[in-house]
Amino acid sequence: MEPTSKGTLIHAQAPQSELRTYAPELRSLTKGMGYFTMEITGYEEVPTHEAQKVLAQRAAEQGKDEPKPNQPAPMGRA
């Protein structure tokens, strides 16, 4: 945290998946005054439990069974 003339500047690192709802939450907490910027600092392997959630969500969106990890998803029609 770093005090500035306009408020407090916070430097933090978080997984991008955790930032999906951050903008509306920040606006709510700061009565519309807060804002943020993001920049990629690197890439890391997705934890297995998170990868499973992503695969399940993707399968549900496509109306298909969940693909097994490390196996390619079936190809759709071109």
H/E series: EEHH
Structural class: alpha+beta
* Oligomeric form: single chain
Q: Low-confidence runs (pLDDT<50, min 5 residues)? A: none
Give the helix tally: 2
Describe what this molecule looks like in 3D.
The protein is α+β, with helices and mostly antiparallel strands and 78 residues long. The chain has a domain at 1-39. It is built from 2 helices and 2 strands; from the N terminus they run ββαα. Strands 1-2 form a two-stranded antiparallel ribbon. Strand 1 (2-4) and strand 2 form a beta hairpin.
Task: Please tag this protein with its features.
78 residues, alpha+beta, two-stranded antiparallel sheet, 2 helices, elongated
Task: Write the SSE topology.
Blueprint: E1 2-4, E2 7-9, H1 22-29, H2 48-62
Condensed summary:
The protein has 78 residues and is α+β, with helices and mostly antiparallel strands. The protein has helices at 22-29, 48-62; strands at 2-4, 7-9. β1 and β2 form a beta hairpin.
